[in-house]
User: What shape does this take?
Amino acid sequence: MQKLVEFSRRYGSNPELVLAGGGNTSMKEGGILYIKGSGCSLSTIRSVDFVAMDMEKLLTICRKKYPNEDKEREAMFLADVNSARLPGEEHKRPSVETLLHALFPQRYVLHLHPALINGLTCGEDGQRAAAELFPGVIWVNACRPGYTLAKLLADKIGPDSNTVLLQNHGVFFASDTPEGLEKLLHNMMTTLKSELPGELPEKLDEVDLSRPFTPDHIVYCGVGPELPDTKNAQLLYLDAQKINWYSRSFGGPHPLSEELVSFILNWEAESYRKKQA
Ligand SMILES: [Zn+2]
Assistant: This one.
């Protein structure tokens, strides 16, 4: 647990990797998953901010049948995820990405939304570039978060999968050691930097956030014409400008579809995260 807290804070304090409440980490031990609570910040996380959950209960969720209707399905899915909390943990709310962490067989999982990596996941040509630069890495097309994403990843993931790129979202790394996570992250960042034409320019182009790149931009910046007057909105706007610039090395910008934007706007899990922000 000490190791988990230590690397969570270290990554959480690096603005190149984590902004606002974005990103999360987990550890598995003796059939229990310890996952970051929704809305807490990695940079200041304590061991009590992790939620202890029953791995077996979590994994049965992917084998269960759910209704097709969005609201009904997501409410049932959320109730099932919450019922996997161990006794005494019921006052905590696990990350919206809990099930994705549970799907990896490895002990530690690190999930981040770095602008550089999202330059790739939000690039028109991202999937092709990812296959070429990172053979063996799993690519998941942008889809509805929550149950749909978990199910899609469950079908793709294998016992040796250690890296997953989520289109218009971010990256997952999994390893049995914190050093292994560090190596996977470092390799990806270094390779991506070598694909850029040079350093990030000081003055970046304006971006249109009515076409957001990732759920973070929706949660912190909204999709209206006016940027909210908060520090996080400013941070995430700058993040979108960086993603926009990086994405030019991967076929040009590819924002989220309108259909996904409206799903995320109405998704209870993200409204919760927004309230915490
Ligand atoms: Zn995420």
The two ends are 26 Å apart (CA to CA). The chain has a mean pLDDT of 94. The pocket of zinc ion is lined by residues 97, 111, 113, 169-170 (CB under 6 Å).
